[in-house]
């Protein structure tokens, strides 16, 4: 057989496919012989062509012995014997009957099987041998040196001859069909081997689970990550212990990525704790369904990524920011209070120039304190430690207070805030301090990004058992390219040439998280040159 340096798995697969192909051919040969042999014996007694059919009987004996012992013979020997038998049958048929028999069929079948079993070079040699046999016998008949070994008129009138020809033709069809099937199986094995090369050494852990909830495939990274091999086909993720990183609760079997994928769901878990015999690891998981050619779900495809290093780095970063923020907030609060006392005259009247410098110090200390508070809120949100205390709140009174508190800030920009209250008696269940923080963020952004002497509108209305709070500015709008990132941390809009808006880019990110923590929704619509509108939606506790 063909020798190569391909890996043992593919070599074994191809050898197994070749063995199955040859076994099926020898089985078909045995069936054909069982039918044709009695016919040949009958024709011996009827025609007396003993010398002619002695060859047939010899070949039939070889076929019967080989077919009955095919499981014990090597693939190489079975392949050599079947090609030899076909060439002998082809040569004998052409020699005895010329083109009146099926000798040409056998020569062609021998070449086809050689092409499947051996290299192209070997196939060319066998084809050359078959062509030589054909041309030699053709030359013998053409020159008159050879004559048919039987009376062709008698042969053509024999039912057994026609039956033999028909059975041989059917046998050739079976050979072609099985050769094509075996070739397809080998191509699939090669393709599977290629995919294995691509996937086995993939750094991401890949596991494919079938409908019977058995592991169909997993790569080396999966074995390393889970620290074990599949037992009796059980998925690795079912043998391990996965827990939710935030709550620490174990994930049930139905919550695993593979099970969700088999239900037709696309699942993404940003962070989970994986407990194996090697210890605890932080992983990111994906799961999505794999489909059969019929369009039905056949597999659950899952990928696990070890993000322990990233998680540890993120934890250190969060701890550092939290510690620094706490350390900064204490002296900033003291500085802010001291400046406030000076500005309030606690130390007596101060010169006008000193008062101006103190006011600058006060504004910047407040800005720094606002930044520190934002950083602390962001860390609490990312760590799941943000505290929200929901109580029934008179929305109208709270929103009116927010507008009044920000009115002075708006006047610094030469603008004003108008509040249109269409829900004067609406009551919602939320944290009033956190809602004021969100509204303050939205109103301050609207003021900063609006032209001077413009109006920022805020309204409240009830619709479908919800309170809708809107904030609309008259600014330049949010460019379409930046709209998908507007709620991401540290994202800031590019300022217009005539505007300067210092900030951290945390306000909208924190506002979105706060709204969601309180069970609400936040959205926006914007068109360049026409401004931006943000809307908050909360379920009504009391519908006016």
Description:
The chain is an alpha+beta fold and 544 residues long. It folds into 4 domains: 8-198, no CATH class; 202-306, 2-Layer Sandwich (Beta-Lactamase); 318-382; 391-542, Histidine kinase-like ATPase, C-terminal domain (Heat Shock Protein 90). The protein is built from 16 helices and 13 strands. Strands 7, 8, 9, 10, 11, 12 and 13 form a 7-stranded mixed sheet that branches. Strands 2-1-6-5-4-3 form a 6-stranded antiparallel sheet. Helix 2 runs antiparallel to helix 3 and helix 12 crosses helix 16. The radius of gyration is 43 Å and the shape is rod-shaped. The model is unreliable at 1-6 (pLDDT under 50). Residues 323-542 form the Histidine kinase domain. Keywords: Kinase, Membrane, Phosphoprotein, Transferase, Transmembrane, Transmembrane helix.
Which features does this protein show?
six-stranded antiparallel sheet, alpha+beta, single chain, histidine kinase, Beta-Lactamase, 544 residues, EC 2.7.13.3, disordered N terminus
Low-confidence stretches: 1-6
Q: Report how far apart the termini are.
A: 87 Å
The total count of strands amounts to 13
Tell me the count of domains: 4
Number of helices: 16
SSE order, one letter for each helix or strand: HHHHHHHEEHHEHEEEHHEHEEHEEHHEE
So what's the overall shape? rod-shaped
Q: What do the pLDDT scores average to?
A: 82
Sheet with the most strands, sense and barrel status:
7 strands, mixed
Strand content: 15-25%
Structural class: alpha+beta
The percentage helix is 55-70%
Radius of gyration, whole Å = 43 Å
